[in-house]
Write a structure and sequence with these properties.
Elements: H1 6-9, H2 11-23, H3 27-52, H4 62-65, H5 67-84, H6 98-129, H7 137-161, H8 167-203, H9 216-240
Helix pairs in contact: 3-5, 3-9, 5-6, 5-8, 5-9, 6-7, 7-8, 8-9
Catalytic activity: Fe(3+)(out) + L-ascorbate(in) = monodehydro-L-ascorbate radical(in) + Fe(2+)(out) + H(+)
GO cellular component, one term: lysosomal membrane
Keywords: Electron transport, Endosome, Glycoprotein, Heme, Iron, Lysosome, Membrane, Metal-binding, Oxidoreductase, Translocase, Transmembrane, Transmembrane helix, Transport
């Protein structure tokens, strides 16, 4: 049997190269799509609470509770995801890192503030209605995520923004910080998804169409949960992609 010619043998590598190029996506279009997806999640959770759950108030009623999912999705998922992707922006790969450090920590701090307000909303609702706190898996996982988030922010601030942190400490803590950044995001997504499911189980009964019959609210909220999951997975995928990682040639960043 005749050996394949050079042109025939090159078909495979060329096809592989073209298929890889077709799958390659630059960061900015990907980030634009991700931003639109995050805004869609925020709009959908607001629409769900306004249209089906009665809107918002601060009177301790169920309308006070409605601030909880809105603030959690906005802060703990969307804004936190934006903070995680700051160092993937190509403009951060050269020049001083300090402005980007401040932006990263500010976005994370904003996400934390919204998260705390979301926790206050649900505790206020439970206390005014005489409902026990912290009895479900969703509540345990959510509070654990927030506590881990607070430790992550404080440790990151101390290690990377304060000028007296030694370079060896920054180098030692950096991979830990990156790992827990992705971990907290996925825990946030899991907490939001379980919270949506829990709310549907509690709400769609006793005078409303049961959850198992899949009314319009259930379809809408389930779709919201899937979009939140997709958002979180895409953020983690962007963080893990080698070609989008900031070059580590400036390891003396601790000198700033």
């Amino acid at each position: 049997m005749a050996a394949p010619s050079d042109e025939e043998g090159a078909v495979g590598p060329r096809c592989h190269h073209h298929s890889t190029a077709m799958l390659d996506v630059s960061f900015l279009p990907f980030c634009t799509f991700l931003g639109m997806l995050g805004l869609l999640c925020m709009a959908m959770v607001g629409t769900w609470c306004q249209h089906w759950r009665g809107g918002f108030s601060l009177d301790g009623s169920s309308r006070t509770f409605n601030w909880h999912p809105v603030l959690m999705v906005t802060g703990l998922v969307v804004l936190y995801g934006a903070a995680a992707l700051v160092y993937r922006i190509p403009n951060t790969w050269s020049g001083p890192k300090l402005p980007w450090k401040v932006l990263h920590s500010s976005l994370a701090l904003g996400a934390f503030v919204l998260t705390v307000l979301g926790l206050m909303a649900v505790f206020c609702f439970h206390n005014s209605q005489g409902t026990p706190n912290m009895y479900s898996l969703h509540s345990w996982m959510g509070l654990a995520t927030v506590l881990l988030f607070s430790c992550q922010w404080a440790a990151g601030f101390g290690a990377f923004l304060l000028p007296w942190a030694p370079s060896w400490l920054r180098a030692l803590y950096k991979p830990i910080h990156v790992f827990f950044g992705s971990t907290i995001l996925m825990l946030s997504v899991a907490s939001c998804a379980s919270g949506i499911n829990e709310k549907l189980f509690f709400s769609l009964k006793n005078g409303t169409t049961e959850y198992k019959l899949l009314p319009a609210e259930a379809v809408f909220a389930n779709t919201l949960g899937l979009l939140i999951l997709i958002f979180g997975v895409l953020v983690v995928a962007a963080l893990a992609r080698p070609s989008w990682k900031r070059p580590d040639s400036d390891s003396p960043d601790s000198r700033q």
